[in-house]
Amino acid sequence: MSTIDQIDVKVVAIEQVAPMIKAFTLEPLKGELTPFSAGAHVVVEMDGSEQRYRNAYSLMSDPNDNRQYQIAVRLQETSRGGSIYMHDQVALGDELKISPPANLFAPAWRAKKHILFAGGVGITPFLSYLPLFKQREVEFELHYLFRSHQTGAYSAELAAEFGDQCCCYDADQGKRCDIAEVMSGQPLGTHFYICGPESLIEAVRATAEEMGIPASAIHWEEFAGAKPGLPFKVELSRQGIELDVAADSSLLEALEGAEVDIPNLCRAGVCGQCVCNVTEGEVEHRDSYLSDTEKQSGQVIMPCVSRAAGGRLVLDI
Amino acid sequence: MQTEQLNGVASKPAYGPVELNPKSSFHLFVAEQLLPKAMECLYDACQPNEGRKEKAVVEDASDPELRNLLATFPLNGTLYLAGTEPFLWRVASHARALGLCPEQIRLMAPVTRERHLFCCHCHTITEGVTYSPYACSGCGAMLEVTDHFSRLHGAYFSFQANAEDSADMPEQREVN
């Protein structure tokens, strides 16, 4: 895979759209941005004082708007720091580098009806779906689950714009979504989309399985990136170097820190781009890309999320 | 003479054993002619707890009655198909257009090995083909039969055999 140049952008607006969520509007330093497809994300590069963060965020602006992109960042206080950096360090007028858009969560356009489940900041990819749904006059329902003390960005605007097509469930006001009820009795050709925490994804998938709804009609995107773990050492056998992977750094970040270029798109164990061959050491697999057989073989690793199970790994790089 | 084989192409469908989907609320069994024995067995074995089952013989893949049956198909229904290969894939293609997912459409192995050929020169489809090369029913060209299968047309891609010297025809061979 060829490396596509990063795009230099400037932060032209920052808005607190929910207690824990800030929205950032980005404009290119020169030229125009490319239009993107609904559901696409960009990887934002942040130069922290101690480390460089690269986090993937869904584009939530209108896909046809090439003047600016918008992303939303939920503050994750227990995460490895990217969201804290975005919330605390990034100011109006700052410059950032972003990757060109990539899409692992596009709508299934053959569907007759689309049902969207958004959990908290998981609303973001769907915000880029909605202008297209409206334009193409496709049938859809948006089920938006959030806690208004933390999340729930744009819920009032969405409810006002889409009326009955948008159902909001604010857990802080005791409103719960009955997933089975939403999913039952839907017509042939309905596809379901989930963006939110793993628990929401699992709940919808389990309900679909229970109801006999085909698995290929269920689409999801987790917004969890790499989670911290224990520190370990990695040896790159072809390059003959050894690197330390810190507890709060991913293996991919450690490789990038040593100027080892690994193609990647999602940084969340989904797209499969960054796969590396393992020659020694046990792997703690955390991705949802490799098959069970591949995981058991112990010969491959997705360095964006997975780590060494022991103190050391040897990669064929 | 021996022509170059393009038959390494892997788009020729493979048909495994068909299983019932126990989670379905509606099981529709459709055959092109009389229900083959294997499908009768499957139909008899299908004992939906709360759902229902139905069987139908439909000679034409575009039969409006079939389309009506499919139009009221539930989201968790399963369609089982038996017949010739072009029939299977044409019905499957209509079903996809109506919103069925691939795993809701279960195809039993075709009842004959006869192929439909799609001629890349005149776009005519020639039916009932078991040999290669075979004369196109549209333009008359002697067509080399490949294993490159179009799921949309339910037919195999074919082209002028030995195009450099079409007077020198390769020996006829059976295609499976």
UniProtKB/TrEMBL annotation, chain A:
InterPro entries noted in UniProt: 2Fe-2S_ferredoxin-like_sf (IPR036010), 2Fe-2S_ferredoxin-type (IPR001041), 2Fe2S_fd_BS (IPR006058), Benzoxazolinone_Detox_Enz (IPR052353), Beta-grasp_dom_sf (IPR012675), DmmA-like_N (IPR054582), FAD-bd_FR_type (IPR017927), FNR_nucleotide-bd (IPR039261)
Annotated FAD-binding FR-type domain residues: 4-108
Keyword terms: 2Fe-2S, Flavoprotein, FMN, Iron, Iron-sulfur, Metal-binding, Oxidoreductase
PROSITE patterns xrefs: 2FE2S_FER_1, 2FE2S_FER_2, FAD_FR
Domain of life: Bacteria
Needed co-factor(s): FMN
Molecular function, one GO term: 2 iron, 2 sulfur cluster binding
Keyword Oxidoreductase: yes
UniProt keyword Chloroplast, yes or no: no
Residue ranges of every copy of the 2Fe-2S ferredoxin-type domain listed in the record: 232-317
Name of protein: Oxidoreductase
Organism field: Amphritea opalescens
From TrEMBL, chain B:
Domain called Dimethylamine monooxygenase subunit DmmA-like C-terminal: residue spans: 117-157
Annotated source species: Amphritea opalescens
The protein's name: Dimethylamine monooxygenase subunit DmmA-like C-terminal domain-containing protein
Record-linked InterPro entries: DmmA-like_C (IPR048037)
A Pfam cross-reference name: DmmA-like_C
